[in-house]
Design brief:
With about 240 residues, this protein is an alpha/beta fold. The protein is about 40% helix and about 15% strand. It has a single domain, classed as TIM Barrel, CATH 3.20.20. The strands form three sheets. Strands 1, 4, 5, 6, 7 and 10 form a six-stranded parallel beta sheet that branches. Strands 2-3 form a two-stranded parallel ribbon. Strands 8-9 form a two-stranded parallel sheet.
Length: about 240
């Protein structure tokens, strides 16, 4: 048996973009996994990776993620929202180069959560983790820049929300061994990837990313034991190739 950590971005019925899953589809996907025997756990509960465990994460802290919270509460599924601290200052649209066109065309859909919104989520039991300061490609940074993105974002989140910031999600799912070790030095309990080095490393916890195009069948395939096994084999080959 294997655990599954889901990675979402936006939850919206009106924003027709690959990053935005509709509220109905989101609920159906969670119900599917619950019917298959997955047990909801907190982010900390995913660290040992044993058993059919389920956790839900959201990258970028879009404001429309608030739509998902009542669904999560009704199904009793814990979640973590990963926020970039620079964007929480004013809640502006995520305007990094990869999505700048979409942000310019639909700033209302790509608006991010302010500190007040993040604080409200935290008070409702949603864990708030770091998605760095500025959403960079971490492997491309110098050692000093990398440490700053990871350490300062964690410190600011803890200071502004008054709660420990225990977990990190790597922007773009872009990571490597140097980034994993920097996350460990920065004081996180664990970090979530979109690739990862396998469950043996708590700083490379793999996730399954889901998008608007994912049908019920695709969700089943992406969260199946066959897909997870293939993921682990591919991760192992990458590690061999780096030696």
């Amino acid at each position: 048996m294997q655990s599954v950590v889901l990675c979402y971005h936006g939850i919206s019925d009106s924003w027709d973009h690959q990053l935005a899953v509709t509220a109905d589809a989101f609920e159906r996907q969670l119900q599917q996994l619950l019917r298959r025997g997955y047990r909801p756990v907190s982010a900390a509960g995913t660290l040992d990776g044993r058993g059919r465990l389920l956790h839900v994460t959201f990258d970028d802290a879009y404001r429309n993620v608030a739509t998902a919270v009542p669904i999560l509460e009704r199904l009793n599924v814990p979640s973590t929202v990963f926020a970039c601290t620079d964007y929480a200052i004013d809640g502006r649209a995520l305007d990094v180069p990869e999505v700048a066109t979409a942000a310019a065309a639909h700033p209302e859909h790509m608006a991010t959560m302010t500190w007040d919104a993040l604080r409200e989520l935290s008070e409702r039991g949603v864990e708030i983790g770091s998605h760095t300061i500025t959403h960079p490609h971490l492997p491309q940074l110098s050692d000093g820049e990398l440490d700053r993105e990871l350490r300062e974002s964690r410190d600011v989140l803890q200071d502004r929300l008054g709660r420990p910031c225990r977990f990190l999600a790597y922007p773009y799912g872009d990571d490597d061994e140097r980034v994993y070790r920097a996350a460990e030095r920065a004081g996180y309990d664990g970090a979530f990837s979109l690739r990862g080095a396998g469950r043996s490393d708590r700083f490379a916890i793999p996730r399954v990313d889901l998008y608007r195009k994912d049908t019920n069948l695709r969700v089943w395939l992406k969260t199946s034991a066959l897909r997870v096994t293939a993921f682990k084999v591919a991760s192992g080959l990458r590690r061999v190739g780096r030696r």
